[in-house]
Design goal:
heterodimer; A: mainly beta; 5 strands; 39% strand; B: 263 residues; alpha/beta; 10 helices
């Protein structure tokens, strides 16, 4: 990825670079994640799964990508 | 009706969903996802608790819980384990609802790491917010009949008092308050936390609880699958004993064989 065409975002606390104009769906694909198995929070707001294709990530966004793990 | 049919017909309902198993099991602390799935199967549980955590971005191909325990067959009950404020718990459950689409959730807001004792002020506050947002929270709480009433008034769909601290396996420490909570509640009551072995689970059911939730007692047993089977039997035995109505206790002996006709 050419850094000039990328933006910096925080994903689960880590700084990452994604292509300018990436949608949430595009970012999940870049990360190799199945959108059906995760939930995404962007700047403390839930991103509904139905809008993954439409919502674009912006410079400095703080994203949390979570899923279910074993727990009591 | 035979006893077998009686057991089958003995269902319980939480927030409009009806279940026949009264045992809810956690999915933490297992050696492997395979062992976890086998224990859930052996327990007969229809509900499992799950946690919501960050995806491991550096290794997205790690095996996932959903690959081993099918959420279409076993209801996932997302929890808020590890949350120490109402805000954190609410945020976690909003994500859980988005991930799974479920309104039925387990709320726990912890007060301190040492005892993992619930913070009831935060728990009550979180319950109120969650209910307003359309959640149906089953709420982990102290074994206090007044706190239980307040949670029910706030809209908790089930009251889940601790038997003893989470992961301690100490068994039910206060049978009197568990009994009082059961007697006063208009929603299901489940002992959540503290069960160590089968007799603890049976005791919870004998006190009239609608169910028992446990994780460590099964996961940390030497043979978790066998213990899961033991817990299934214990919950059923305790439930049947409660329905049967136990005999009164006496201070002294009372012979079981007739005194008449002695040679």
């Amino acid at each position: 990825m050419d850094l000039k065409e990328s933006i910096a975002i925080h994903v689960n606390g880590d700084l990452r670079h994604v292509t300018v104009g990436s949608s949430i769906a595009g970012m999940l694909a870049e990360l190799g994640l199945d959108p059906r198995k995760v939930a995404v929070e962007r700047n403390l707001e839930i991103v509904p799964r139905g809008t993954f294709d439409d919502v674009r990530v912006a410079e400095g966004d703080r994203l949390e990508i979570v899923h279910f793990v074993g727990g009591g | 009706m035979t006893a077998q049919q009686d057991i089958k017909a003995d269902t319980w309902t939480v927030a409009g969903r009806t279940f026949s198993s009264r045992l809810i099991v956690g999915t933490g602390k297992y050696k492997s996802l395979e062992e976890n799935a086998a224990a859930v199967e052996a327990s007969g549980a229809e509900i499992v608790t799950v946690a919501v955590r960050r995806v491991n971005i550096s290794d997205p191909n790690q095996p996932m819980l959903t690959d081993f325990i099918d959420p279409k067959k076993i209801a996932y009950l997302p929890n808020t384990a590890g949350c120490f404020t109402a805000e954190d718990a609410i945020r976690t459950l909003r994500l859980a609802r988005e991930a799974g689409g479920w309104n039925l959730v387990k709320l726990e807001v912890l007060g301190e790491a040492k005892t993992l004792y619930p913070d009831m002020r935060e728990t009550l506050r979180a319950t109120e917010v969650l209910v307003k947002e359309g959640f149906e929270p089953m709420v982990y709480c102290v074994d206090d009949p007044i706190a239980a009433k307040q949670l029910e008034e706030a809209g908790a769909v089930a009251i889940m008092p601790l038997g003893a601290p989470i992961g301690s396996g100490l068994g039910i420490q206060n049978r009197v308050t568990i009994r009082l909570i059961v007697e006063g509640a208009g929603v299901p009551v489940l002992v959540d936390a503290g069960v160590g072995t089968a007799s603890d689970a049976a005791q919870a059911m004998e006190l009239g609880c609608d169910g028992v939730l446990m994780n460590t007692a099964i996961a940390e047993a030497k043979d978790p699958v066998l213990m899961a089977r033991a817990m299934k039997a214990a919950v059923e035995a305790g439930r049947l004993a409660y329905l049967a109505g136990r005999m009164q206790k006496r201070r002294y002996a009372d012979p079981s064989s007739p005194l008449a006709g002695l040679i």
